[in-house]
Design a protein that fits this description.
By secondary structure, the protein is of the alpha/beta class. The protein has helices spanning 2-23, 47-66, 86-98, 111-124, 154-165, 181-197, 217-226, 239-249, 266-269, 294-307, 313-332, 337-344, 393-396, 400-407, and strands at residues 33-40, 74-81, 104-107, 128-130, 147-149, 172-178, 202-209, 230-234, 258-261, 281-284, 348-351, 354-358, 365-366, 369-375, 384-391. The strands form three sheets. The chain has a seven-stranded mixed beta sheet with strand order 7-6-8-9-10-14-15, sandwiched between helices. A five-stranded parallel beta sheet has the order 2-1-3-4-5, with helices on both faces.
């Protein structure tokens, strides 16, 4: 009898282990849904960027599901907050895949989180679409078959800004920014490309501060004393706003113009209201008032109807993810991971910013870059961008051959 009881316990334990193993298996497109798992920062100041991504995605899948879904399946989603920490992002990605059985991973604002989840996606062979992480390593030297970028990266932003600045009369430059990967990467890419396009430019100085710095006065004093023609501002996140306000208070904006990627974007200008400085140059992938097309107007109208606010750049990235999944699965013909990846390569979607292609060689979404300068507007309680020019991907993207060389 005791032996029988022991055997029953062994059988139960073995069955439990099998069930645990099955619970740990990645999603397999079971049932009538395609499930997307978002890992991102949904609390704290960073949520000003990430919530627009999620809302843009939700709007896209509402529209897709209203059209009947894709391949007879509805698109659903679940979220996890990584608290802007790569270790937590990786743990949350594992939970989404093994417990929630998601078919697709998406999200990450923190580039460290993007790279951590990307490595996991490669090991588990599950598609991962990055929606805000800006490191050029994600689709560059550390890129692989299972990771896609629905946002721009530091290299794209820097090279596009260089194309626009090469047309300006500025010759002497000062670089100033946040002393971490994003700041150095965007400054390096911009400066190297600008020197190629305009060999006569000179860098006369640099200033780098810790990310948590709030007192920019010593740095601004040094820049004013050097009197460069132009400043390349390599700032990210909420230091965008902090530096703009410090520059305005010190009178810098009236003496020396400067550039910041996303310095003209709604995420940077809306929190400042009319107190933002005019004359700041910047780049952005999306502006709710530009381009002035019927597609963009319809997108803005729908977004305002759902959320009672204007969309920021993140809304474009999230919306693009929804459209990529709809068109990708339709093109694949069935809900299969490898078929989806093949279908996404070279896929073109129609977006509020115009046609967007997912480049096959590096899985980078080819986004336009809008370059302009801030000014006050009677139409809005915040500054907008004026003198806008569009820098197309063909004019600033690194070639596929160069990307593949990086990976080797």
């Amino acid at each position: 009898m005791e032996m029988e009881i022991v055997l029953k316990k062994v059988i139960i334990m073995a069955a439990s282990l099998v069930l645990i193993g099955l619970a740990g298996a990645p999603g397999s497109f079971a049932g009538d849904t395609i499930k997307v798992g978002f890992v991102d920062t949904y609390t704290g100041p960073a949520s000003a960027f990430t919530l627009d991504v999620l809302d843009g995605f939700k709007m896209a899948i509402w529209q897709v599901n209203a059209r009947g879904g894709v391949l007879g399946k509805k698109i659903t989603f679940v979220t996890r907050d990584d608290r802007f920490t790569p270790d937590i992002a990786l743990a949350m990605a594992k939970e989404l895949v093994f417990r929630e059985k998601v078919d697709i991973l998406a999200g990450t604002l923190n580039s460290g989180s993007s790279l951590a989840v990307s490595g996991f996606a490669l090991r588990e062979k599950i598609p991962f679409i990055v929606t805000y992480g800006k490191s050029d390593k994600i689709s560059g030297e550390k890129g692989h078959r299972y990771v896609f970028m629905a946002t721009d990266n530091t290299q794209m932003a820097g090279r596009a800004a260089a194309v626009a600045l090469a047309q300006k009369p500025f010759l002497t430059y000062w670089i100033a920014g946040d002393d971490y990967e994003y700041g150095h990467a965007i400054a390096d890419d911009l400066w190297h490309q600008l020197k190629k396009l305009k060999p006569g430019v000179r860098k006369i100085g640099e200033s780098w501060w810790k990310v948590e710095t709030k007192d920019f006065a010593p740095y601004i004093t040094a820049i004013l004393a050097a009197r460069p023609d132009f400043i390349i501002g390599a700032t990210g996140g909420f230091n965008m706003v902090h530096f703009q306000q410090a520059a305005k208070a010190a009178g810098l904006t009236k003496k020396i113009p400067f550039y910041q990627h996303t310095g003209i974007e709604l995420s940077t200008l809306e929190p400042q209201g009319r107190n933002a400085p005019a004359g700041v140059y910047g780049t952005a992938n999306y502006l709710f008032y530009y381009p002035d097309t019927s597609e963009n107007k319809a997108f803005v109208q729908a977004f305002r109807k759902h959320y009672n606010r204007s969309p920021k750049a993140g809304a474009l990235y999230g919306y693009a993810v929804g459209l990529l999944l709809e068109k990708g699965y339709a093109r694949a013909g069935r809900a299969d991971t490898e078929k989806l990846i093949d279908a996404l390569e070279g896929l073109v979607i129609e977006s509020p910013a115009g046609p967007l292609e997912m480049r096959a060689c590096d899985h980078q979404l080819l986004l336009p870059m809008f370059f302009g300068v801030t000014k006050k507007s009677p139409l809005y309680p915040f500054l907008i961008a004026a003198d806008l020019v569009t820098v197309s991907p063909q004019d600033y993207m690194m070639s596929c051959r160069d990307v593949m060389a990086l990976r080797k």
